[in-house]
Write a structure and sequence with these properties.
By secondary structure, the protein is of the alpha/beta class. It has one domain: Rossmann fold, CATH 3.40.50.300. The chain contains nine helices and eleven strands. β8 and β9 form a beta hairpin. The structure holds adenosine-5'-diphosphate (ADP) and magnesium ion.
Length: 328
């Protein structure tokens, strides 16, 4: 297949120039972002969005290289099923223009976590639609329009200085690769783009994640690092007995990348997500899943070498050593 660079004669559209101008604008907008970490899976409903928000909460309680807390934001890249605005309690906080140049202020939670999600601009229940020049042909353009919209958002938002920008990916094994290719030219260097895959401890889920891993491995050399996977719903946390009970039969599918952490299904976490997760509070403090998210965040911060600051908490997290799987 031809790439943009192979196009000879573009009918005067200067398509290559347009793509490069857009990429360079986005690179500029992201210049204050230390690491872009995409949270994907391939599988839907495994808790990508929940894990993303839990990691954001946990990361911002860690001390960063400058000594202050890590600065974190979330980009909800699931344009068709955006839920970060709702989960983060920012449904009524739209992206506000900062100036006449089209720059947008990032809605922020009281804990400082910025959240950019179409859920804060699309009324609840409304689907994302695009104008079309040819009725009935929308599907031909849809994927392209979605990626263009995402690039537009990335380029327009005033991200400021961030240690980590977490990107909540939509489902689809092939989409994980699509996003890897989309993001790779936008970061300052290839090691600034990381991938964390979320799976359930079931063979069905691991099977799909294994496809995503294979697809990422097949694009080796094109930028980005697979940091590992997070096992979500690793048992059910019973609040009555205080124990984690099995939810799925022991899976046999092996994922060839380090496990960064295991979060049990915790009804308190499901409630936090449904109600708009507040910062701190009893529900969070008592959540077994959030405790596990804290260990996972520490493992990720360590891999990103963000743990240099004084007061960085690193407890024994039971995670495997950095046997990093490079997808570059
Ligand atoms: N560890 C967990 N404990 C409790 N509820 C969870 C957990 N992980 C996910 N959920 C709930 O499961 C549902 C699906 O999770 P979500 O994060 O939206 O999945 P995905 O983004 O992969 O489609 C949500 O309602 C969420 O609150
Ligand atoms: Mg999601």
């Amino acid at each position: 297949m031809k790439t943009y660079r192979d196009i000879a004669g573009d009918g005067g559209s200067n398509v290559l120039g347009q793509v490069e101008a857009r990429q360079s604008a986005v690179r500029g907008a992201l210049s204050g972002v230390g690491h872009l970490v995409a949270v994907g899976s391939g599988k839907g409903g495994v808790g990508k969005s929940t894990v993303t928000l839990a990691l954001a909460r946990a990361l911002c309680s860690l001390a960063g290289p400058s000594g202050g807390p890590l600065r974190v934001a979330i980009l909800d890249a699931d344009l068709n099923g955006p839920c970060q605005a709702r989960m983060a309690g920012l449904e009524g906080a739209p992206l506000v223009p900062l100036d006449g140049a089209g720059r947008l202020a990032m809605p922020r939670r009281p804990d400082g976590i910025g959240v950019v999600s179409l859920g804060s601009v699309l009324p609840g229940g409304d689907p994302l639609t695009f104008e079309t020049v040819s009725t009935g042909e929308e599907q031909t353009w849809r994927a392209t329009r979605e990626l263009a919209l995402l690039l537009q958002l990335l380029g327009a938002v005033e991200w400021g200085e961030l240690d980590v920008l977490l990107v909540d990916l939509p489902p689809g094994a092939e989409r994980t690769v699509q996003f890897a290719d989309l993001f790779a030219p936008l970061v300052a260097s290839p090691d600034r783009l990381g991938f964390v895959m979320v799976t359930l401890p079931s063979d069905v889920s691991r099977g799909v994640v294994a496809r995503s891993l294979a697809a990422l491995a097949a694009r080796a050399g094109r930028g980005g690092t697979l940091l590992g996977y997070v096992e979500n719903m690793a048992g059910y946390f019973c609040r009555d007995c205080g124990e984690v009970r099995p939810l799925f039969p022991e899976p046999t599918t092996v994922l060839d990348t380090p496990c960064l952490g295991r979060l049990p299904f915790d009804p308190a976490l499901a409630e936090l997500c449904d109600r708009g997760w507040p910062a701190g509070g009893e529900a969070e403090a008592e959540s077994e899943a959030f405790r596990a998210a804290g260990e996972t965040a520490e493992a990720i911060a360590k891999l990103l070498e963000l743990g240099e600051g004084p007061g960085f908490r690193v407890q024994g997290s039971g995670t495997r050593s950095r046997d990093e799987e490079a997808v570059r």
